[in-house]
Write a structure and sequence with these properties.
By secondary structure, this protein is of the alpha+beta class. The chain is built from four helices and seven strands. It comes from Lysinibacillus xylanilyticus. InterPro entries: Acyl_CoA_acyltransferase (IPR016181), GNAT_dom (IPR000182).
Length: about 140
């Protein structure tokens, strides 16, 4: 497995990215327009035999903090540390770009991701209820 880092929309990988996104997020669509609308988009793709097996996508939030937006690993590849590798590589890349903080949101029903965030030095800074009436936990980490 290797990790591909792309600044901007990963057009060459887009079809596969949509497939793994739908797999991870219960069939949810990832529209190209949504990716194209994000300023400072950074995509990390875990690739094995030219297939995406995991991904981590984020962008620059208007307040200047990098927002780690979407990510996941194919269910057949979970438990192998791929999400942690993607997170570490993302944070290294963000530091190289000059970011001082990274933020992400989590949901209680995705406990593995909550645990991964905590293991990698994120702090819980607040909570909120989104437009779909889902409770979200806000995590932030200072990059050093």
């Amino acid at each position: 497995m290797h990790i591909v880092t792309i600044e901007g929309v990963p057009y060459d990988w887009f079809k596969q990215l949509q497939e793994i996104h739908a797999h991870v997020f219960d069939g949810a669509n990832l529209p190209l327009e949504k990716l194209e609308s994000k300023e400072g988009l950074v995509c990390l793709l875990a690739v094995e035999n030219e297939d995406i097996i995991g991904f981590k996508i984020g962008y620059t939030h208007p307040d200047g903090i990098f927002y780690s937006w979407l990510g996941g690993v194919h269910e057949k590849k979970r438990g192998q540390g791929i999400a942690s590798q993607l997170m570490r590589r993302q944070h290294e890349h963000l530091q190289a770009l000059g970011f001082k903080k990274v933020r992400t949101y989590g949901r209680n029903e995705r406990k593995a991701m909550l645990i991964t965030n905590l293991k990698h030095g994120f702090d819980i800074v607040s909570t909120f209820v989104d437009k779909k009436d889902r409770h979200k936990i806000v995590f932030e980490k200072t990059l050093e």
